[in-house]
Amino acid sequence: MTTIDRSAPVLVTGATGYVAGWLVKRLLDEGLTVHAAVRDPGASDKLQYLNQLAEDAPGTIRYFKADLLEEGSYAEAMQGCELVYHTASPFTLDVKDPQKDLVDPALQGTRNVLEEANRVDSVKRVIVTSSVVAIFGDNSDLQSLPGGILTESVWNTSSSVNHQPYAYSKTVAEKEAWRIAEGQDRWDLVTINPALVIGPGINPRATSESFNIVKQMGDGSTKPGAPRFGLGVVDVRDVAEAHFQAGFTPEASGRYIVSGHNTDLVELASTLLEKYGDRYPIPRKALPKWLVWLVGPLVTKGTSRRMISRNVDLPWKADNSKGVRELGLSYRSMKESMEEMFQQMIDSGQLRKG
Asked: Quick one: fold of 10-347?
């Protein structure tokens, strides 16, 4: 059991990120001091949203320059912190060099942050933002599991640099985190493994693949229909809450699947029909798998026929009960998350006003 002193500062790496923004808000609202590790503390345009949060909250934010790939980069930011949140990791599916653009930053970044925790005596707990893709690679993997359901005990064994490289990057990074954690006994490690994160960003132009997926539902890209690509989804604010509770719940331990809903792309799009269906080309039907297999790789970057074969028309199911039971988590409806995210895209000019 680990108890965190709330008067000590809390480090958040990748503080300008999608999930991190809401986590920073939660910490500031609790009156905590946040050490925000960012690439450029002088980039006022990128920090404006965090500054706004700090102005409206009892907590305090301090910025520290840090680079994921630079050893020792987090030393100053981590001083005096008992709790460290490592959220920084790239999430994109369209990359030229998966090893260089995804795997190396995820692995090296995790190593740099956790090895720094080994050197900073104040650290008691590290929370790493992992992903459900460190648990599975393709929906076809679920067919070999009891009941076809993902649990925290499962690891992704089907991804590689050449197939589902993003999933591979999260898997090797989380495994490295556990390897480093098990090599010492001063601080404990907890990982948060979210499904696809949806919902509005603190920054309306957050750089996350989630925004590309939802944008395509309103810009005409998927007007003919969407594949029944099974996946889990979770609201970004619920993911931030999971991080907060994992940090401050003394008994928290191990991995936590954080997913609100077992769904697919067609069902996800359908949550937008009631409010936006008459003004935007929201996909209404499922595309047949053979058609997705035929044209998918031609129209969507980062999509392969192997990926389509192993995921489309296959269900996705995960057991989220550990987080509900141990961290007291509850989940917003998909409709609420999707409508608020879609409206934010309209208001910020990313989708034309309908």
From this structure: Rossmann fold (3.40.50)
